[in-house]
Design brief:
The chain has helices spanning 2-19, 50-57, 73-81, 87-92, 116-121, 128-139, 165-182, 192-199, 205-208, 226-231, 236-250; strands spanning 22-25, 31-33, 100-101, 107-111, 148-151, 186-190, 212-215, 218-223. The protein is of the alpha/beta class and 257 residues long. It has a single domain (49-60, 69-250), classed as Uracil-DNA glycosylase-like domain (Uracil-DNA Glycosylase, subunit E). The strands form 2 sheets. A 6-stranded mixed sheet has the order 3-5-4-6-8-7, sandwiched between helices. The protein has a two-stranded antiparallel ribbon with strand order 1-2. A hairpin with a 2-residue loop joins strand 7 and strand 8. Helix 1 (2-19) packs across helix 7 (165-182). The protein is globular, with a radius of gyration of 19 Å. The termini are far apart.
Length: 257
């Protein structure tokens, strides 16, 4: 599985390089850049998101010390919008849902998959669960613009079912590149699906929550999904306990109860 994921990530990287203007490479390691102007991003989905617009505005013409086009969120987002790896998700989606928020955020909220409202607007967590997530973020003394929000997959599964393992695997390369570009210090997994995805475990969310985990240099906190809280309001106290753990480690003031 690791070999398949590596192949998928390399393929995605090569497509990014091509989008950035790399036309060919030689055995000596030199790289030729196509003289044509970079392809327009006019086919990107209109998400209505300030962050999406900001990401699209990022320069894709800059080159690194090797002359290669620099990877940007805008490049990855364009590739996501053209992805057809999951037949059922592609047939079901209105548009892809890439992510929203501060591209340099210290804290990332990691959810399951887009729902109906997200699929319609192209922005993660905009329905009732998203409104509750916004309240949680504000209770931490932050705003949505201070954090970054994304999901395990970028397309809405049929009937709002959980994304299948193979669908998550198909999106893993995009997710890894997205997180590498954002470079957060903390990731808050919302629910069982993203928690198991990131920690690569089969443990239940009840056993994973309440402590900080270390993964690839990130401090990871797992807690209940806002949609679960809408069905089980009594669990809100556990989420607030989890957020206080996160806040204390981030150096944010914790309100006295």
């Amino acid at each position: 599985m690791q070999s398949d994921q590596l192949k998928r990530t390399i393929t995605q990287f090569l497509r990014s390089a091509q989008s950035a203007g790399v036309s060919s490479t030689s055995p000596s390691g030199s790289i030729e850049i196509a003289s044509a102007e970079p392809e327009s991003h006019s086919n990107n989905h209109e998400s209505g998101s300030d962050t999406s617009q900001a990401a699209t505005a990022e320069s894709t013409g800059e080159k690194d010390e090797h002359g290669m086009g620099k990877e940007t969120l805008a490049i990855v987002e364009q590739e996501v919008s053209q992805c057809t790896l999951c037949d059922e998700l592609v047939a079901n989606r209105t548009q892809t849902v890439f992510g929203v928020g501060n591209p340099n955020a210290d804290l990332v909220f990691f959810g399951e998959a887009p729902g109906r409202d997200e699929d319609k607007q192209g922005i993660p967590f905009v329905g009732r669960a998203g409104q509750l997530l916004t309240k949680i973020i504000e209770a931490m003394g932050l705003q949505r613009d201070d954090v970054y929000i994304l999901n395990t997959v970028k397309c809405r599964p049929p009937d709002n079912r959980n994304p299948l393992p193979e669908e998550q695997e198909n999106c893993k390369g995009f997710l890894n590149r997205q997180l590498a570009l954002i470079s957060p210090k903390y990731i808050c997994c919302l629910g069982s699906v993203p928690s198991k995805n990131l920690l690569e475990t089969k443990e239940t969310i009840g056993k994973l929550r309440g402590v900080l985990h270390e993964v690839n240099g990130w401090k990871v906190l797992c807690t209940y999904h806002p949609a679960y809280l809408l069905r089980n309001p009594s669990a809100k106290q556990f989420v607030w306990e989890d957020m206080q753990i996160l806040m204390k480690d981030m150096g944010l003031p914790v309100p006295k109860t």
